[in-house]
Write a structure and sequence with these properties.
Number of helices: 5
Pfam families: Jagunal
Radius of gyration: 19 Å
Keywords: Endoplasmic reticulum, Membrane, Transmembrane, Transmembrane helix
Protein name: Protein jagunal homolog 1
Family: Belongs to the jagunal family.
Strand content: under 5%
Transmembrane segments: 17-39, 51-69, 76-95, 115-135
Shape: elongated
Structural class: mainly alpha
Distance between the termini: 15 Å
Length: 160
């Protein structure tokens, strides 16, 4: 009974993180559409940085996570965790490195070349990276705990 309670709690925490992630993902998608379809001038909404393109794949681990919940599917959850590393965490690390020289330029010389609604794009995108990194970090942490709880309850069922 304790495992199912833990499972329900962890699932609800992970769902909140997934919905937050979908929000971030939709904002980046909006930026890409606006940039590429020239819906707004580029001085209002900057073109995306390179790391944002592979990050679009980060929706897959979240979907796998949600798919694992109804039947406590261990393999989907494991796939979700592995692909979170590849499609979510890796592009964020790459993004932090890609934007670092631009951030340095901004803080040393006060020069920004890309803007998002009047804010320097590099500052806005670093904020996104920091928030997204926390979302994915907690997602992985709770997924690991959920996985452990599913393993334990599977083991107990086998003993009976």
């Amino acid at each position: 009974a304790l495992h199912s309670l833990l499972s329900v709690t962890l699932k609800s925490e992970i769902k909140k993180l997934i919905y937050t992630h979908v929000g971030i993902w939709l904002l980046l998608l909006a930026q890409m559409c606006i940039g590429h379809l020239k819906l707004l001038p580029h001085d209002q909404v900057a073109m995306p940085y390179q790391w944002e393109y592979p990050y679009l794949l980060s929706i897959l681990p979240s979907l796998l996570g949600l798919l694992s919940f109804p039947r406590n599917n261990i393999s989907y959850l494991v796939l979700s965790m592995i692909s979170t590393g590849l499609f979510s965490v890796a592009p964020l690390i790459y993004g932090a490195m890609e934007m670092f020289p631009l951030a340095q330029q901004l803080y040393r010389h006060g020069k920004a070349y890309r803007f998002i609604f009047g804010f320097s794009a590099v500052s806005v995108m670093y904020l996104v990276v920091v928030v997204a990194a926390q979302v994915h970090g907690w997602q992985l942490y709770y997924s690991k705990k959920l996985l452990d709880s599913w393993f334990t309850s599977t083991q107990e069922k086998k003993k009976k």
